[in-house]
């Protein structure tokens, strides 16, 4: 029997259950499926989200993979589709295709120190990985979250960051690029925090998500601390259409970001990342 | 070895330095402290010293008409405040303010410049330690300038 849910080209209609503002242009939508169907996903994967009559864009999961009935996406309004999505209130419909793409290497992280480096909205695609790490905390060594954003008012998930900091079994460092407001926290680029973080480079896995330039600098700083390129994972972004490796829209050198990524190991990316305009 | 010389030897900025140099440097150094809100250095003033931070955090700020005061970097224990003492015209180009109680070693710039002129090996050793800090801060400034977290194009 034909099953629309199993066809990655066939969108399913979902509704907004909740909508919360998480920053000046950033909204988090919690979605519910038809008859509350679960959508199992891996941390790091994404959905194609359709704002009806406007278009379809890739957006990472930002919720907890342990709750497949609670589909959560955190979206920044930058253009027509993302803005339309962030305007959808409770009860409004949209369509999703997914889950798509590769996830963060959670099983490979087992038994190792984990450093998560997030820049700006890059904290959203890393949040599912943080939920996973914390739910099985004993399986991992030292866990460090380094998060940088533009200014204090743009810090995402503030309450959760505070809660994670209070746990004591996860080091959380937040920095902003600059501030004009009173702010007791750190100021400076997120890559500057890497040299001060405590981890054993020989047994560390790094998960990095943010704007591409920031990820490049972060990967360099991690490598300078002794991490092998094969121990660094980045979540790549390219414009997408099909999301399943058919159209070539998201081509990045020899890779298709939708199919081979978005989460990719740095040793596969390093050379291509330095090619201009790719 | 005692007091200030010991502190300089143990400070990460001078990690592994030849003890003979520590001795020379410590002759230009003294312990100092700043209360929260007090300035370590101010834009436009003569760069007569630099600081090795031992305790507490310091913010680097720039202010301009109509833009208020922008904080662009926080520095903490193990780090260094002040590089303009190395390059003429030896004037600070930003403010550095204690965010909390700060304890630091203050090193007299004229004293160290004079010793470096007399002993170029010392000068070269200092340059090798200051250059990476300068380059890191330049990289950071470039990233901040690119405003990577803003919307693209
Ligand atoms: C795998 C993957 C996961 C993603 N996850 C998320 C996510 O969790 N949350 C989220 O908000 N976005 C995410 N994105 C980015 C999102 O897909 C784009 O922001 C979206 O496609 C923009 O479409 P638009 O029609 O709104 O704007 P467009 O018309 O495509 O662009 C409008 C303007 O915004 C700029 N722009 C486009 N994308 C971005 C961007 N990502 N950052 C900054 N400026 C941009 C464009 O250059 C243009 O100037 C992800 C992208 C990929 C590939
Ligand atoms: S979006 Fe079509 S191949 Fe990747």
Q: Describe it for me?
A:
The complex is a heterodimer of chains A (278) and B (153). Chain A is an alpha/beta fold and 278 residues long. Helix content of chain A is 23%, strand content 30%. The longest helix of chain A is centred in the middle third of the chain and has 13 residues, at 123-135. Chain A is globular. Chain B has one domain: Jelly Rolls, CATH 2.60.120. Chain B is globular. In chain B, 35% of the residues lie in helices and 29% in strands. Chain B has a four-stranded antiparallel beta sheet with strand order 1-8-3-6. In chain B, a hairpin with a 3-residue loop joins strand 4 and strand 5 (68-75). The chains are: A alpha/beta (278), B alpha+beta (153). Chains A and B meet through strand 10 and helix 6 of A and strand 5 and helix 4 of B. Bound molecules: flavin-adenine dinucleotide and FE2/S2 (inorganic) cluster. Flavin-adenine dinucleotide (FAD) sits between chains A (46, 55, 57-60, 74-76, 78-83, 121, 124-125, 237-238, 240, 262) and B (151-153).
Number of strands of chain B: 8
What is the beta-strand fraction of chain B?
Answer: 25-35%
Write the element-wise H/E pattern of chain A from the N-terminal end onward: EEEEEHEHEHEHEEHEHEEEHEH
Oligomer: heterodimer
Q: Uncertain segments of chain B of ≥5 residues (pLDDT<50)?
A: none
Number of self-contained structural domains of chain A: 2
Walk across the major sheet of chain A and give the strand order: 10-9-8-7-11-12-15
Order of H and E elements of chain B = HHEEEEEEEEHH
Radius of gyration over C-alpha positions of chain B, nearest whole angstrom: 16 Å
CATH topology value of chain B: Jelly Rolls
Number of helices of chain A: 8
Assign the CATH topology of the largest domain in chain A: Rossmann fold
Measured as a percent range, the helix fraction of chain A is 10-25%
CATH architecture descriptor text of chain B: Sandwich
Helix percentage of chain B: 25-40%
Average predicted local confidence, pLDDT of chain A? 93
């Amino acid at each position: 029997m034909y099953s629309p849910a199993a066809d990655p080209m066939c969108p399913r209609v979902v509704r907004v259950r909740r909508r919360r503002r998480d920053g000046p242009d950033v909204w988090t939508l919690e979605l519910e499926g038809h008859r509350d169907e679960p959508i199992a996903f891996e941390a790091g994967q994404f959905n194609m989200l359709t704002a009806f009559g406007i278009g379809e864009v890739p957006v990472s999961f930002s919720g907890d993979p342990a709750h497949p009935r609670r589909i959560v996406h955190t979206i920044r309004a930058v253009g027509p589709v993302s803005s339309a999505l962030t305007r959808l209130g409770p009860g409004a419909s949209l369509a999703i295709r997914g889950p798509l793409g590769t996830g963060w290497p959670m099983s490979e992280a087992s038994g190792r120190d984990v450093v998560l480096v997030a820049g700006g909205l890059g904290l959203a695609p890393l949040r599912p990985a943080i939920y996973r790490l914390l739910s099985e905390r004993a399986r991992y060594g030292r866990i460090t979250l380094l998060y940088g954003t533009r200014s204090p008012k743009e810090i995402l998930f503030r309450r959760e960051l505070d809660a994670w900091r209070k746990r004591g079994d996860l080091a959380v460092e937040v920095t902003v690029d600059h501030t004009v407001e009173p702010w007791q926290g750190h100021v400076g680029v997120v890559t500057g925090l890497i040299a001060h973080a405590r981890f054993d480079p020989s047994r560390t896995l790094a998960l990095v998500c943010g704007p591409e330039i920031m990820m490049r600098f972060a990967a360099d700083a991690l490598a300078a601390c002794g991490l092998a390129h094969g121990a660094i994972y980045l979540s790549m972004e390219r414009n997408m259409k099909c999301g399943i490796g058919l159209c070539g829209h998201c081509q990045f050198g020899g890779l298709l970001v939708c199919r081979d990524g978005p989460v990719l190991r740095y040793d596969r990316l390093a050379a291509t990342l330095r090619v201009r305009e790719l | 070895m005692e007091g200030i010389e010991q502190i300089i030897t143990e400070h990460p900025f001078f990690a592994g330095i030849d003890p003979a140099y520590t001795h020379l440097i410590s002759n230009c150094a003294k312990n100092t402290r700043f209360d929260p809100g007090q300035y370590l250095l101010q834009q436009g003033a003569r760069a007569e010293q630099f600081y090795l931070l031992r305790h507490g955090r310091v913010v680097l700020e720039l202010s301009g008409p109509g833009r208020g005061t922008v904080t662009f970097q926080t520095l903490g224990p193990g780090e260094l405040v002040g590089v303009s003492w190395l390059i003429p015209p030896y004037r600070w180009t930003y403010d550095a303010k204690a965010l909390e109680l700060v304890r630091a070693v203050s090193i007299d710039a004229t004293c160290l410049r004079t010793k470096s002129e007399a002993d170029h090996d010392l000068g070269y050793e200092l340059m090798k330690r200051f250059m990476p800090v300068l380059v890191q801060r330049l990289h950071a400034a470039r990233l901040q300038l690119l405003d990577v977290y803003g919307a693209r194009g």
